[in-house]
Write a structure and sequence with these properties.
This protein is α/β, with parallel strands linked by helices. A four-stranded mixed sheet has the order 4-7-6-5, covered by helices on one side. Strand 6 and strand 7 form a beta hairpin.
Length: 134
């Protein structure tokens, strides 16, 4: 069995979150989505779980970080090309995301980032496949 990762993120407005990610081409698994949670497969082994703040509090005794003012995590997704990096970040910005920093171009690695509607930072990066050692 493949190990999976479920990234659980608190959101203030679940419907707005679903609409935002839908504009970026993502869909939700209806089996694990309800009025308190939206399950968004990223790959076969990576799933983002967007939870209303009330539901998120069921899983932790800690205060929920305000991701618009505090960095809680940096989420990084790979892309197949520089063009794909730009396309996804441009779509996110058009859908209401913020772009927290300029692109980072290191020749063999290129990346941009966006802050989603709740301030969670998503980095999108491309790395020259010839530079990746197996």
């Amino acid at each position: 069995m493949t190990t999976m990762i479920f990234v659980n993120l608190p959101v203030k407005d679940l419907d707005a979150t679903k609409a935002f990610w839908g504009k970026l081409g993502y869909s939700f698994n209806a089996q694990f989505t309800d009025e308190n949670c939206a399950s968004m497969p990223i790959t076969d082994s990576i799933v983002a779980m967007f939870l209303t703040e009330a539901r998120y509090k069921d899983f932790t005794h800690k205060a929920i970080a305000d991701a618009t003012t505090t960095s809680e995590v940096l989420l990084c997704l790979s892309a197949e090309s520089r063009t794909a990096v730009d396309a996804l970040v441009d779509a996110a910005v058009a859908a209401g995301a913020g772009e927290p920093r300029p692109p980072q171009d290191h020749g063999v690695m290129y990346g941009r980032a966006f802050d989603d509607l709740d301030g969670h930072t998503w980095e999108i990066m491309w790395m020259d496949p010839s530079m990746v050692q197996g």
